[in-house]
């Protein structure tokens, strides 16, 4: 695919990239309606290994519906989804998680009363070895804390040195880091981030952006949904533009400016 040529739905797109890479996640012609309201109108999307793909669009453009279909929260009426070359049919978010797709939603599904380590392993607790774990179901708190420290260090998260601190005592950016770290720890194939910097200040937003780039450096592909254009253009490799339930174009920060992207979003330009 020529980086200088935006992709739109009037032109068929080969799934493989210019260098022959196959997408890790691919959706083709997804349709989702809610009564008479069309959420998605034949939307396609490709996410390649080790890239950050931003999804942008005005309210009502279909961003959330698209992500929900990709992550099992909604079932598309029509269309196909492939993960790692295999067609998948997610009926619920747990199916997507089991397949290796982790999602961090805007409202952050963290438990404030639990510490950092317990949140990292929420729902996936490590049990003690032997009878204590298999019969009495005792949690290996020490093992989880040691593993949590390793995971945070590998992601370059320096703001969470003490994994025994309750999440309710953390800042917004630190809470976001916990949620993203959990997704990275278990999202073996894809991590989806929904407006991760929406409620954060400049310093904490920068920390989250660094975390996104750290995921990419580890080879974990990321789908980033965001209204913040400077953030999108700072970290995204490619940008999927939604408009009125369709994919209006796929562009790159090298081929288009923020003004160009907004023009495509609003219909002032077709890219």
From TrEMBL:
Q: Which UniProt keywords apply?
A: ATP-binding, Nucleotide-binding
User: Which organism is this entry from?
Assistant: Agromyces binzhouensis
- Database matches in Pfam families: ABC_tran
Give an example GO molecular function.
ATP hydrolysis activity
What's the superkingdom here? Bacteria
Q: What is this protein called?
A: Sugar ABC transporter ATP-binding protein
Q: Which InterPro entries match?
A: AAA+_ATPase (IPR003593), ABC_carbohydrate_import_ATPase (IPR050107), ABC_transporter-like_ATP-bd (IPR003439), ABC_transporter-like_CS (IPR017871), P-loop_NTPase (IPR027417)
Q: Which residues form the ABC transporter domain?
A: 25-269
SUPFAM superfamilies to which the protein is assigned, alphabetical: P-loop containing nucleoside triphosphate hydrolases (SSF52540)
Q: What Gene3D superfamilies does its record include?
A: P-loop containing nucleotide triphosphate hydrolases
């Amino acid at each position: 695919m020529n980086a200088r040529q935006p992709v739109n739905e009037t032109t068929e797109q080969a799934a493989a990239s210019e260098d022959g890479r196959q997408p890790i996640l691919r959706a083709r012609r997804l349709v989702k309606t809610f009564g008479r309201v069309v959420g998605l109108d034949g939307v396609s999307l490709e996410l390649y290994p080790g890239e950050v793909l931003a999804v942008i669009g005005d309210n009502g453009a279909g961003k959330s519906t698209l992500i929900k279909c990709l992550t099992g929260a909604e079932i598309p009426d029509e269309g196909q989804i492939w993960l790692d070359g295999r067609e998948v049919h997610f009926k619920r978010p747990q199916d997507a998680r089991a397949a290796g797709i982790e999602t961090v939603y805007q409202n952050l599904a963290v438990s404030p009363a639990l510490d950092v380590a317990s949140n990292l392993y929420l729902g996936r607790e490590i049990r003690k070895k032997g009878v204590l774990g298999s019969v009495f179901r005792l949690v290996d708190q020490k093992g989880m804390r040691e593993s949590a420290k390793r995971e945070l260090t590998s992601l370059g998260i320096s703001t969470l040195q003490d994994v025994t601190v309750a999440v309710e005592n953390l800042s917004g950016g630190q809470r976001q880091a916990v949620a993203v770290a959990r997704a990275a720890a278990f999202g073996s194939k894809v991590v989806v981030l929904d407006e991760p910097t929406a409620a954060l200040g400049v310093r904490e937003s920068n920390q989250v952006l660094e975390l996104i780039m750290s995921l990419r450096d580890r080879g974990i592909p990321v789908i980033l949904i965001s209204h913040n254009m400077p953030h999108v253009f700072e970290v995204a490799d490619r940008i999927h533009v939604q408009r009125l339930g369709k994919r209006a174009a796929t562009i790159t920060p090298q081929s288009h400016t923020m003004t160009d992207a907004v023009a495509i979003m609003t219909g002032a330009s077709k890219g």
